[in-house]
Each structure stands twice: as structure tokens, then as C-alpha cells.
Amino acid sequence: MAALTFELPDGTQRRVEVSRLLNAGYAGRSQADVAAHVAELAELGVPAPSTVPALYPVAPYLGQQTAEVPVQHARTSGEAEWALVVDETGDLLLTAACDHTDRALEAHGVAWSKNAGPDVLARTAWRLADVADRLDTLTLRAWVTPVGGGAEVLLQDGTAGELLTPGYWTEVLRERGELRPGTVLISGTIPMRAGVDPFAARWRVELADPATGNVIALAYDVLPMPEPIG
């Protein structure tokens, strides 16, 4: 299992031994946004889902707090998301996340592709109860740095209000018997800007609270692995 530690705004820390990791997909509240995301993925050769929203179990060790993601080839990319975390006390935390996915493998199976890369989580979090009254106003953004260098480019820019709520997924987890310490659920993502290459050398994601100015951020480099022998 992966061991994660989150720092809260008051300076205290919460530890989580990830026992179940779930990735939501096609989880926009707007059917137009869901259709747009399906179209984005179709351009990458990914077939449309049989039902929406979708939920994909992921190996727990893939929940990581890391600054580097090694990849086997050039067609991998992340997605700006929030993560719902049930900590060791049973309290619900909210943090930023980036689901790094193998897009080549995704054309053969979304669940397979989700298990071919990590879900990168930030090292800070908020108690869900502390932001529950303004969840829809939280902003979610992702920037990418092109392969070969250059300035980072804004790829995703939206709000948590575009996605199904943590409350929705809390009920799903409760019905599944998985609202237990060690569960981490990644939210699904918002649309990407057209014309920006997501196959990048670096990803940066921010979940921000305009009411307080507080920001939860993560960033990581995408590192090509050596060519295999044999």
C-alpha cells in the first residue's frame, strides 16, 4: 500500500495508508462537457464509455506524492482533478490530484490505462467540511511545459462546480461499503483547451479557494525511461 501524508492549514498532519484507489471518469455535471471530453479522448483513439459517470479501480500503490513520473513512451498525459481522501480517523479531506494516464493503452481499455501510471496527489489538503459551503467556487487549473522546453501553457481552467460533487461520490462509496479509512477517489476532469499539446514534459495542477486565497498545488516532471533491451 502507498503511505501518504497531508498537511492541513492549521499545520497538523494526517496520514493515509491507501487501501483502495478509485478514478472517476466522465464525471462532469454538464452533459455538454462530458460529450466534449468523450470527443477529446476519441481523437486519441479511446472508445466512448458504455455508461457515465464511470468508476475505475486502480492499484493502491499508484496513489503517490511524487515530483517525477517515469513513462515508457511519449503518449502519456495527466488531468487536473480533485481527490477525496478518507484519512486514518475517518475524516474526509480534499486535495489536488493529477491522473497520469497511458493514452496509447487507453485505446485498448480505460481501466488498463489508469493502472499504467500514478495518480499524483498534493502534499497539502483541506478538511472537506471546511470548504463544503463553497465547493462549486473552487478553481481547478493545469499547466503543461512542452517537450523540448519553453514557457508553460495553461491547458485546463475551470471550477469544481463543473464536476460531480464530493457529496455525490461519498454516497457512492457508502453504498459500495468503501467509505472507510484508506479510500482515495479521484474526481474526473474538466475540459482541455483546444490546440494545447497535453503530451508534455511537466505538469502543474492547482486547486484554489478564491474566498481565502489558499492554494493546493502539485507539480511533476515526466521522465522518459530508457529503451528496453530485448
Automatic annotation (TrEMBL):
Pfam family, one: DUF2848
GO molecular function, one term: catalytic activity
Classification via SUPFAM superfamilies: FAH (SSF56529)
InterPro entries (UniProt xref): DUF2848, Fumarylacetoacetase_C_sf
Official protein name in the record: DUF2848 domain-containing protein
Species per Swiss-Prot/TrEMBL record: Streptomyces angustmyceticus
